[in-house]
Amino acid sequence: MSSSGSWPVLVLHPEPSRILAALLVAVHLAALLAVLAMGFPWPVTALSCAGLGANLVMTLRRYVLFRVRTGIRGARWNPDGSWAVWGGDGLPREAILHSGSMATRQVSVLNFKCPGARTESLVLLRDAVETQTMRRLVARFRLAGSHKR
User: Fold this and answer.
1) What angle do CA 147, 14, 100 make, to 5 degrees?
2) Of 44, 62, 118, 132, which is most buried by a Cβ count within 10 Å?
3) What is the DSSP letter of 85?
4) Mean pLDDT, rounded, of the chain
């Protein structure tokens, strides 16, 4: 595996992550408690709480449940180093991996830019993909020089 042409295709089909869901709920609850503790007038507090609730639902749908049509549901790292991602429509499209992406055995954040679209992220925690797939991703990041610390 000394050259990028000899790497096998790496396909990422993440499952919903309970760890990520728990972290998102905990962060949103902490923000809710902070809003309630601030002592704002009730209309401001109500709007802030509604905004936090809406943000939690949207974030869970996009990054945990993969229920957003435009969000990334999976990715494929080809032997030549190119990437393809697919969303709710199931159609693969070419993507460019941004340099801000990172991969470790516990968590990986892959930031993609597709032509004609905004930057999208695929967040993978250890319970979202198989252990062997996560190991292969981390190893390939290191070998490809994409791994940033």
Assistant:
1) 25
2) 62
3) E
4) 87
Distance, CA of 65 to CA of 73 (rounded, Å): 9
Mean pLDDT of 140-146: 78
pTM of the model: 0.80
* Alpha-carbon gap, residue 125 to 85, rounded angstroms: 18
Token pair 């999208």 in the structure block, residue: 120
Q: What tokens does 120 get?
A: 């999208």
The confidence score (pLDDT) of residue 100 equals 86
Strand segments (E) across 25-140: 74-77, 83-86, 92-97, 102-103, 107-113, 119-125
How far is Cα of residue 26 from the mean position of the Cα atoms in its chain? 18
